[in-house]
Design brief:
Elements: H1 2-12, H2 19-42, H3 49-72, H4 83-98, E1 101-103, E2 106-108, H5 110-127, H6 131-155, E3 159-169, H7 176-184, E4 188-197, E5 202-212, H8 218-225, E6 230-236
Antiparallel strand pairs: 1-2, 3-5, 3-6, 4-5
Length: 241
C-alpha cells in the first residue's frame, strides 16, 4: 500500500507528462474551476459552473500539451514549448469579452471576465504541476469575490448616481414623504433640485440618489409615483441641467 502511494506521488510530481499526473491535473483543474464557477453562478452570471470548469480543464490540457510536445519530439530543438500556453492567454480574451455586456452606458460582467482570465491561468498552473499555488490562488479568488462584495455593499463602493425626475401637481414645500420612500428601500438620497411653476401649479423635482448600477429601482419609482399626484416620472443616469 505504501509503495502504491509512493509511486502515485512520484508520478503526480513528475516533470514529465504521464497518464497518472495528466489525469490528476485535469481532475484538480476541474474541481478548482467548479469552485470559481459556483460563486459566479450564485451571483446569477451567465458564465457559471460548466463554463469555468471547461476553461480550467482546457487551459490545463493546453499546458500539458506544451510539456508533452518537446518531450516526445526531442528533435525539435528550435521549438517553443510555451507557445501553446501563450495562445491560451490570447484566446481567453475572446471568451472574457463575450461575458461583458454594455447596456445604457454601463458595462456589466467585468468581474466575470476577470474571473475567466484568472481561471485560465489557474488551469495552466495546474497543468505545469504547481498544485499548491493553484489551490492557494483559487482560495484567494473566492475570498476576493465574497469578502470584497460585502465590503463594497457596506461602504457603498460600486454605487453610481441615478436621477429620478418627476413632475407633481401642486406646489410642494416638503419632500419628507419622498425621503421616507428612499429610506425604506435602502436608497441614499445624495441631493435634490426643486423648480416651481406657479403659472401651471406644478413642481418639478430631481432626486440624485446613490444605488448599485444594476439595482431594480422600479419598486422605488412606483412608490414615489403614489406620494403625490404625478404627471411625469423618469429615471436616468445623469442630470440634464
Amino acid at each position: 500500500m505504501i509503495d502504491l502511494i509512493t509511486d502515485f506521488l512520484k508520478n503526480v510530481n513528475s516533470l514529465e507528462v504521464n497518464m497518472t499526473n495528466s489525469m490528476f491535473r485535469l481532475i484538480l483543474s476541474m474541481v478548482l474551476g467548479m469552485a470559481v464557477g459556483a460563486e459566479r453562478k450564485r451571483k446569477g452570471q451567465i458564465a457559471g459552473i460548466r463554463t469555468f470548469t471547461l476553461i480550467a480543464m482546457g487551459s490545463c490540457l493546453a499546458m500539458l500539451l506544451s510539456i508533452y510536445v518537446p518531450q516526445v519530439y526531442l528533435g525539435l530543438k528550435n521549438g517553443d514549448p510555451g507557445r501553446i500556453a501563450a495562445q491560451v492567454i490570447t484566446g481567453i480574451g475572446f471568451i472574457g469579452g463575450g461575458a461583458m455586456i454594455h447596456m445604457k452606458g454601463a458595462v456589466r460582467g467585468l468581474t466575470t471576465a476577470a474571473g475567466i482570465w484568472m481561471t485560465a491561468i489557474i488551469g495552466m498552473a495546474v497543468g505545469i504541476g504547481m498544485y499548491f499555488i493553484s489551490i492557494g490562488a483559487t482560495i484567494l479568488i473566492l475570498l476576493t469575490l465574497v469578502a470584497f462584495e460585502h465590503y463594497e455593499k457596506k461602504r457603498g463602493v460600486g454605487q453610481v448616481s441615478k436621477v429620478i425626475s418627476l413632475t407633481a401637481g401642486g406646489i410642494l414645500h416638503d419632500i419628507g414623504d419622498y425621503r421616507k420612500v428612499f429610506a425604506d428601500n435602502g436608497i441614499h438620497l445624495s441631493t435634490y433640485y426643486v423648480e416651481y411653476n406657479y403659472e401651471k401649479n406644478l413642481t418639478e423635482l430631481n432626486f440624485v440618489v446613490l444605488a448599485h448600477a444594476y439595482s431594480n429601482l422600479l419598486p422605488v419609482l412606483e412608490a414615489i409615483g403614489k406620494v403625490n399626484p404625478t404627471l411625469k416620472l423618469t429615471l436616468s443616469s445623469q442630470l440634464d441641467i
